[in-house]
Fold this sequence. Notes:
By secondary structure, the chain is an alpha+beta fold. The protein has one domain (18-138): Endonuclease, Chain A (3-Layer(aba) Sandwich), CATH 3.40.960. The chain is 45% helix and 12% strand. The protein has helices at residues 7-15, 23-34, 84-107, 125-144; strands at 40-41, 52-54, 59-64, 111-116. A four-stranded mixed β-sheet has the order 1-2-3-4, sandwiched between helices. A hairpin with a 4-residue loop joins strand 2 and strand 3. The N and C termini lie far apart (59 Å).
Amino acid sequence: MSDIFTPTKRHEIMSSIKGSNTKPEILVRKFLYNNGFRFRRNVRTLPGSPDIVIKKIHTVIFINGCFWHGHQNCKAFRIPKTRTEFWIQKIQRNRERDEEAIKKLQTLGWDCIVVWECQLKPGRRKVTLEKLLDVLYDIYLDSSRL
C-alpha cells in the first residue's frame, strides 16, 4: 500500500513531530511537581539529554514514544510498510543510543527510569504514575541514608 500523502506533505507532517515538551512529558512533569518533586528538563550536559532530571536524588527519567524508541511487544509500535529497511535501521539506532546513554548515566551514578508512552494512556496512567512515585520514594529513602 502506498502512502496517502505526497512526499512534500509527508515531510511536513514528520518534521512537525516534537522532540521535547510532548504531552506524555508534560503529564509526568505535572504529576511529579504536584507530588513535591523538583526537577530540570532536557539537561543536555548529561548523556542522552534526559527528559526529567531530579538532581536531589540523582535520578533521570526518560519518557519514550513507543514508535520512535521501538517499544517491544507494544500495540503502538509497528514498522511502517513503506521504506521498511530505513525504519528498522533508524529505530535500531535509537534503541542503541538509548542503551548507551543509560549505561553512561549508570556509570556516573544516576538512577535511570524509562516510562513508555503506552503506559500513560488513560487506562494505565494512574497505576504507572503511582508506581513511578513509589520508585522515586524508594530512591529518595535509599539516598537519604548515605
